[in-house]
Queue: 3 jobs
Job 1
Amino acid sequence: MSDRPAEARTVGQAAGTASFGRFFKTEAASAAVVLVAAAVSMLIANSVWSPAWERFWGEGLSLSIRGRLLDLSLHEFIDQGLMALFFLVIGLEIKRLFVSGELSEPGRRMLPVIAATGGMVASAVLFLGLDRPYPEIRGWAIPMATDIALVLGVVALFGKRLGAGFRIFVAAVAILGNLGAILVICVFYSYGIDLAWLACSIAAFALLVALNRFGVERLALYLVLGFVFWGLLLKSGVQATLAGAVVALAIPARSRAGSTQGPLHLLEFALHPWVAFGVVPLFALVNVGVRVTGDGLAYYMASRPVALGVALGLLVGKPVGIAVATYAATKLSSASLPEGMTTGRLLGASVLGAVGFTSSILVASLAYPQGSRYLNGTKVAVLACSFVAALVGAGILAASSRRSAGVR
């Protein structure tokens, strides 16, 4: 007789590898689109069309269900509405990795969790280590996040030379860093909490969990209830981008019929291209632009303590935190480095963690008011640090790959 549990595990692992490969390729390909959108945003911000551009995205957008329920500008809808879909996708991917994918074994998932935590803590500590007044200190979570698309885009330049274990480790650390940042946003960046609306949002999430517990697999029910949950969370005063990651927890990972193509897989497969090639580039188009000519730079110099904190957090805190936490975990616990992971590759992966870009700018837009010198100064720092980290990280990986191949 065949060993059916073992056979099922083999099939599940093969499906999981194919799913991660698709996720990796989509994110890496979207990096080029995000960079083009960011470049266009910068050009417009430094052109005569900048005032009209800002007025357009500042227009109101009313979402009504039997009367006006929500009133957002287009800019706010992108930041708090569409970006919730981004966190839904990364929440689905990390749940798939943990439940049925490459990190389903406790020993494998431990290392990226520790690495991501180390990077987040070290980056925040360095930012907070600078003495500054309250309005500036609100940006302490900005260097925590990592831009998944750009990091995987850099890794994709090396093809398969870095190995599957390396790609999974880097992707998991970047995804977990984003989830950690959005949790920080929820806890520390929410204000004026309305307890009645918050109670309603908790009830909506309880219904989502109940659907999962009773084995309901119709995605339409989860999506409708998830939209209601997002709206209630927004009305409560809690940062609504959290809704995507929370809803992902309730989506069933497996089909009751035993199929490897469960609701989670189907939803991620359907949403991911739209988010990677639509939502994230649109966010970059609307948010990245900052005036960097003449009086613009002089104005942002007033925010240099914030910019310095972001730079230290990204370029020093993230790489040191990821590398030290990973090294300590391999020495003090049962965690082990992925196959083919050398010291040089670990250092390269740690430096790539400093590529904040769109993810850090999202956190910055929630920490500081639109158009403020703090926000715009932070954007300049994030863009510069991300560029440096991408170049340095790629250089370290290239050197490490040459040594591994025996090239002198």
Note: The radius of gyration is 21 Å.
Job 2
Amino acid sequence: MGCSAAHEVNPSYNTLAAGALPTALSEISGHPNTKWGGSVMAALQIKNIPTGAGDDLKIDASYSKGDTKNVISTSAASPSFAMFGGTGRACAYQSIGFGATSDAVFLPIAAGGTGDLKLVEAYGIRGAFNHNWDPYWSTSLFGSASAVRYNGAVGDLTTAKGQYCAVYAASNGAKSADFSCNPDFNVCQIGVVTRWTPVKNLTFSAEVQYFRLDQAFTGTNTLAAAAPKPTTVYEYKDQNTVSFNVRAQRNF
């Protein structure tokens, strides 16, 4: 099975206040022209496999340009990632990993940019295998890997990466000598869930999941406070976490 989608990327104003709020100068400052992006996805499901009755294997792959939510998304929206962890670097308070999910970036001509939208690319793959132990018990192994790419090079203000890093470097604090900006990132996760259905429409489940954020910033930076975190020095570093969830579901 395959599908495709078109997405209109509609930009905001060139001039905005903190929190992306409009000001009295927003309308007269103008904004970039709209660009069209899109995405494609191909999926495969294999049934009647020899591991057991009712077992199946599902896999899909997707690619987008200017339509990132069709590669990385939740039921609500496209998530951006900001994860904290430990650090072994002297003078750093903690480590942090960023993953900014967007459809496009732009830098106005007045700020040194080209004034047009630079579409962001993303691609990913997901899969799941479900095994039925008996009519009451089943287990699924699932996982995914996705990547977001801001094309171009740092210092090249005609590209998405160059424009992103120009704004990021100007809006943050004191940086270490080995600081480098790179908004590209990868996310991957793998998990297993086991379900018990003692009677129809009642299911108990337990799930363990591992998640990793592979980010590309390096060095340290003095970042502004974001409650409950203080204004202090943070080391840029890949992050990971493990979660465990139990659930009882009754369908009526």
Note: Residues 2-250 form one domain.
Job 3
Amino acid sequence: MIAAVAPLDGDVRMTVSRPGRIWDLVARQAASHGGPVSATDACVAAVAAVQVTGAWLSAASGTELPGHLMSVTDAVGERLAELQLRLGEGPSPDAAANGGPVLAADLGETESDRRWPVFAPAARRAGAAAVFTFPLRIGAIRAGVMGLYRDRAGQLDDMQLGDALLFADAAALLLVSAGQLGEPAAGAGPGGQSADLAGHRAEIDQATGMLTEQLGVGVTEAFIRLRAYAYAHDRPLGDLARDIVARRLRLGPDPDSSEDDQA
């Protein structure tokens, strides 16, 4: 599930154009694991190039549901992505909704607590001091979000910010060219999604679909109910979805309640 960051062999800034340098780093990352170039490689290569601690990549094919986690470079990045999916709050949802980068250079600032009253303190406890998120867009197509984090506060400098934007552009192009962003994958999914993350996504989608039938609501409302229950009971969405799919748990009419499935 957690991808390794390939080492950089020297500085190529002086020999190629800036976009060319970014694509070269993405290609090197792909070569390090012997696979085709994917959006995951863009996410992973950004960590060393932009000088951040870790990263994650979420993909979405529509506007009804939040993006599904495609790749992550470490456990803290995975926790940050999970928190935002569960809470519906944080830099990633804001970037997806607004269509522009969201840069939180210090999660300890009052502004971060005001903007994300639940996510900001939870992110600090997880080990993040700064978070930078970039929407993945090609024209009118919104493909997801790339998130970067640091374990210390501090802004991205101009070079780092410019590189992060180019990595996000590369990830967006690779995601869209992979196609079928809305389809769960049995193995490695579009954009280089791991089998574990593809399974996690499929369980959440399946649980949401079951809730539409059980509760008589639409897909958006069903996901909101799933997320609300996960938040109220401090459970990861994937674990909760797994219990619903296995019929170990059935959500009741009250958004915070549950009952054993007697079917």
Note: Residues 194-257 form a domain with the Arc Repressor Mutant, subunit A fold (CATH 1.10.10).
